[in-house]
Every structure is written in structure tokens, then in C-alpha cells.
Amino acid sequence: MRNIQEYWQKIKGFLDAGIGDWGLVAIIFLTALGSFGLGRLSALVEARPPVPLTMSPEKSSPAALAMGGLVVAAWSGTVYYYPWCSGAGNIALQNQRWFTDEKSAQAAGYRPAKNCKGLAQ
Q1: What is the domain extent for residue 13?
Q2: Residue 109 near residue 80, CB atoms below 8 Å
Q3: What parts of the sequence cross the membrane (predicted)?
């Protein structure tokens, strides 16, 4: 433990003698100058050019549902969905059965899907 305290005292004495009154001012000035230089350097670096549309990835259009009413159900299923619900997107086009309203879907024996928000439960 004594060795650590002796080394610390030597380091502290060296820093006090080396830095002095003007050493602190020099450190502050050099820090400010370095910060200003880094700021200028970052402004001089060229910005990345915008990506032209010819280099953009292929455009993919979302598969649209064939709108035939307000709610859709599968011929082989037991529930009906709004067209924007995730379950409606899983119904094959040839298996879709469209209804103009929820009452007509319920009259045909379908019930509202539990994972489709907004349907009458």
C-alpha cells in the first residue's frame, strides 16, 4: 500500500510542476481548437449522393383483395373478416365468399373473427 501512495505523490508532483498555471489554459485552448477543427472537417466531407430511382430495389405492389362487399369469409370456413384483417389475406381468391354486411354473413352461418378488431362479437 505504501508503494502506491509514493507513486501517486510522484505523479501528482510531476503534474503540478508540468502543468502549472499556463498548462491548464493550454489544455483548454487545444481542446477548443480540436473541437472546432473536427466540426469543420465534418462539414467538408461530401454528403452521400441520393440514390437514383434506377438503383432502387424492385417495386412490389401489395396483393389487392377483390372487393365484393364489406366482409369476406372462406367457403370452407366458419368465420368472417373485414378485408383488411390478416385472416382475410390468407383466404385464396377462389375460396372467398363476400357479404354486403355482417348480418348477411351471420345469416349464412358465419361468426365474427376474434382477431379482427371492430367486428361485432
Answers
A1: 1-47
A2: no
A3: 21-43, 63-82
